[in-house]
């Protein structure tokens, strides 16, 4: 089956209007922006929404803004804009790292940050990126908005905290001194889903790691935040032994499945290698900021 089930279509003209339509239409309504995840699922009838609400005209949700204490990114911001952003390159280069290895130019020109996070695919790169940098997701509804940390946003495979009558409007990332970040990914071919990927963010205080975020993609049912590695890194001094410990934790704390991209042991090994590699790069970038 390669054609979607019948559905109704409307094009939103405002955020408030989109939310009102979601509330009115109920659980069988879906937001569509880039559509690169939703439409293939609809063609295979893995998803059969009765209503699609197109938000591509809501340009007020397409922005990257640097404030005094945080960076705010609109949910409709395209991958290509995340990749080219000078603000993100300065504060969170992990975004550009990830965007260079996400899909292809067609997808990057149309796909959005909000769509990527709401798809809740375990192999999706930006969920790990946002988890590592400590992002918060803003969910709009008819009575206002609520803010959910990335650690609580994904409830399971293809399941998020977004409820009926709600939509993601923004992602907020706190700004802190001494930060550095990086993303590493291995894929079968350019533009493919990851075999494994790792995102790391660190905040240095002199020669010590004051705080850290470490997250993995494609090696579990959802994005995996490595809390054991984060606890280990806080207050530690960078050293080969520390990198080896983080690598071991990443291998132990992921839960990959064997499939066409490789066996479990290979994926565990790969997760460890990529976590250590991203950590080294993130620390080097943080230290370079202090020079």
Structure description:
It is a single chain. Helices cover 37% and strands 27% of the residues. The chain is of the alpha+beta class and 291 residues long. The radius of gyration is 19 Å and the shape is globular. It starts with 7 loop residues before the first strand and ends with a helix. The protein folds into three domains: 8-53, 2-Layer Sandwich (Uridine Diphospho-n-acetylenolpyruvylglucosamine Reductase, domain 2), CATH 3.30.43; 62-174, Uridine Diphospho-n-acetylenolpyruvylglucosamine Reductase, domain 3 (2-Layer Sandwich), CATH 3.30.465; 179-290, CO dehydrogenase flavoprotein, C-terminal domain (Enolase-like, domain 1), CATH 3.30.390. It has helices at 15-25, 38-43, 79-84, 86-91, 94-99, 105-110, 113-119, 125-132, 150-153, 227-233, 240-253, 264-290, and strands spanning 8-11, 29-32, 51-54, 64-66, 70-74, 136-141, 144-149, 154-156, 159-160, 167-174, 179-187, 194-205, 208-217, 224-225. The strands form four sheets. Strands 4-5-10-6-7 form a five-stranded antiparallel β-sheet. A four-stranded antiparallel β-sheet has the order 11-12-13-14.
């Amino acid at each position: 089956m390669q054609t979607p089930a019948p559905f109704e279509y409307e094009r939103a003209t405002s955020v408030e209007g989109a939310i009102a339509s979601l509330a009115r239409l109920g659980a069988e309504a879906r937001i569509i922006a880039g559509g690169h995840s939703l439409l293939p699922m609809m063609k295979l009838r893995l998803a059969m929404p009765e209503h699609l609400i197109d938000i591509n005209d809501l340009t007020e949700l397409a922005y990257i803004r640097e404030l005094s204490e945080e960076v705010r990114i609109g949910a409709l911001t395209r991958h290509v804009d995340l990749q080219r952003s000078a603000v993100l390159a300065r504060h969170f280069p992990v975004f550009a790292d990830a965007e260079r290895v996400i899909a292809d130019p067609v997808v990057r020109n149309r796909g959005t940050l909000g769509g990527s996070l709401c798809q809740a695919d375990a192999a999706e790169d930006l969920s790990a990126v946002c988890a590592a940098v400590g992002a918060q997701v803003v969910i709009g509804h008819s009575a206002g908005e609520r803010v959910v940390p990335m650690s609580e946003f994904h409830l399971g495979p293809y399941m998020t905290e977004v409820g009926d009558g709600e939509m993601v409007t923004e992602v907020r990332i706190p700004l802190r001194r001494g930060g550095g970040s990086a993303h590493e990914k291995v894929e079968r071919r350019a533009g493919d889903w990851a075999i494994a990927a790792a995102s790391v963010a660190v905040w240095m205080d002199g020669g010590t790691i004051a705080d850290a975020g470490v997250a993995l993609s494609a090696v579990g049912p959802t994005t995996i935040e490595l809390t054991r590695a984060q606890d280990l890194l806080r207050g530690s001094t960078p050293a080969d032994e520390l990198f080896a410990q983080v690598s071991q934790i990443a291998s132990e704390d992921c839960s990959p499945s064997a499939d066409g991209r490789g066996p479990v042991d290979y994926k565990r090994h790969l997760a460890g290698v990529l976590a250590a590699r991203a950590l080294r790069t993130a620390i080097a970038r943080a230290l370079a900021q202090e020079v």
